[in-house]
Amino acid sequence: MSRRRFVQLAGGALALSSTSCLPHVGGEWETCGQEGSCEPETHEVPAPPSSRVVEVSDPLSASFESLTIEAARVPAMFRAGLLALCEVESVKAAWEAVLPAYEPGQRIGIKVNCLSARAASSLALTQAVHDSLVEAGIEPEAIFVWDRTERELGEAGFLSDEVLGPRCQYTLAKDETADCAGYECEPVCLSGRKIYLSRLLTRETDHLINLAVMKNHDTAKFTGCLKNHYGAFSRPGDFHDNCAEHIAQLNTLPAISSVSRLQVLDALLGVCKADTNKPADCAPGRVLLAFDPVAIDRRGIEIRDEQRFSCYDLPAGYPAEYLDRATELGVGAASYELVRIDMPP
Fold it and tell me: How far apart (Å, rounded) are the C-alpha atoms in residues 341 and 345?
């Protein structure tokens, strides 16, 4: 029995269409204060297979002058990074290494970040991941792209995309601003407070590919792979105070750690000096891949700081404290092995 099927059966007694089990859930990011205390839990986190970070660079893939992406160059970047990360020579062998327990009938969720359409996970890189899975023999119907809301996915262009549009799913539809919506009715505990996870994570995802964006963040100091999971539970805005602890603890939850397979950081374009909701302001022209979310975010922060200096002559940004806390909790490594690949012109 698959993990998803087990959860479906275990939750069969819940009134999934109820409009009263989750009255605190909102479609936007308004705060609602404490959502109920709970006893903090300690979770054993599976160790990432390696702390290798593969960084694929192609200056022709993104333009700083126009802040646009040359989509045709992205698939080769992702392919090169995937093969180097897995140290194999074929896409099929690479995905077999990333998804060793994959079985027909299971689903692969690609979690993107579309909170700000002006600096979202790029369509080009998302499609490259999707197409690579199909090349490896995964049925297209087994792959879906997801994020928090229909509105955010739509504004980022995903829903109208010819390839990705039919594959997109969202926790909240445009007309769902309250009630149970797409979240579980039973809470889990995050840092001593109750949260409600998206059913797309708990019931639909057997294998998770985390496709984040390299962005500055005024509160967390950096948005990358670890923080991308803030789009997987209700009212994430309530967890911005003391977010270093919350982000680290979030990544220990079994619903996330047990299905996480691959970390991808979209640094084709990024936000290096403004806040996370601002337009892209740099064009590193890079794609990063790793199994270790802490390692890839550590390298992402270094690239952000390189861009701050080279583009704007600014000093390094603030460090993200949640990286050290996540390391303490066993989510990832304190150091990493960097493998650089420069794509030919």
Answer: 13
